[in-house]
Amino acid sequence: MPNYFTKPSKSAEAEVTGAIKQWAYSLTDKDSLDPLFERIGESRIVMLGEASHGTHEYYNWRSYISRRLIEEKGFNFIAVEGDWPDCYRLNRYIKNYAEEGKGAFKVLHAFNRWPTWMWANWEIVALADWLQHYNQALPLNKKAGCYGLDVYSLWESMESIMQYLGKTDPQALKAAEEAFKCFEPYRYDEGQSYARATQFVPELCENEVVHLLKEIRAKLPSYNTDHENVLNAEQNALVMVDAERYYRAMIHGGPHSWNIRDDHMAQTLDRLLKYHGEKSKAIIWAHNTHVGDARATTMSEEGMYNIGELARLKYGDDKVVLVGFGSYKGTVIAGSRWGASMQKMQVPPAFEGSWEHLLHTAGNHNKLLIMSDFNHDVFMENHIGHRAIGVVYHPQYEKYGNYVPTILPLRYDAFIYINETTALHPLHIQPDGHQMPETFPFGV
What we know:
Shape: globular
CATH architecture of the largest domain: 3-Layer(aba) Sandwich
CATH superfamily of the largest domain: EreA-like (biosynthetic domain)
Number of strands: 11
């Protein structure tokens, strides 16, 4: 992903900071978000980003926004940048299905794929408990759900399908077993050995997963379990098909594997909206790089697109609201390499000339920007660097790999700026005192 950016001129910086001082809302308490809810209006899809996968404030503000959208505007579900099988178990728990009455901590503690902290954290425990309580008195078709959008869970999805078919369709189980046998030698390294093997046999297991999907789709009308389990079976088969494509593309590098992943997320969103009905509404939680319209960044120059762009194109700008998040400095949970132990890392002050630095220069308080207020030429003409921290992070090299050149008012419909952020609270590291930390700064 391109990460170079040109520092704006002094006059441009002065114009940008002046406009921010004039038009940004101070974010002091939960009521400060009222302009955002006015902007959301009757939109069908609200996407809530984050500038990292390990920041407490991003999770808490998104949680509060999601609760209000569910309670006040009738949103039907939250779909996150997470694995379908894990999130589906959480969905069963919050909807009070009898077999999932383990408690939010146990359900989320079972999220054991690295980076575990993304969803196995105390902030999500608080949201899950709220959802479970909210759903208790509602009929099944009115309960708010939670689903995973991502494509990484090849083996978990395969195991889920085999368990389901073993109970409902022994004949179709044979197709699942054939797919399992094909992938079994490549199981233990997150698809890397499978990706390498496809250099020599390009369609290594493609036929098996496509056949399994066809078999399941042909039998869906005859499955007599509850409707969500039927949805689950089909989605797990689709995860397998797209995961196989993703791992096959991964070895070649470039934008293709990224696009497969975001296209899968977009199609999963489409299926969930269709499943919940023509008037259904969705909340999406994902990184800014997925949520913020890629056409407003240099990602598009590399041939990359994302779920935010795809949703705007399919559903229309008036039905989709994209909300970005960012901060000036703080701490974050991340790893030094893929699979490494999680660490609390310092996030240094944003580099001069970046959006985060300009927002800080305009006042070191938290802010809400409604982007229709910022259509000035200086905002629209400059690709200014916008920080993006992943699950792998090296603060000392941040300038060279963590800023995406961005036209902010075109990338988002609203932006929430937190001047100083703190690290997330993972479940797999005991919090101080072994107690749940405060999950929202205003006691919500």
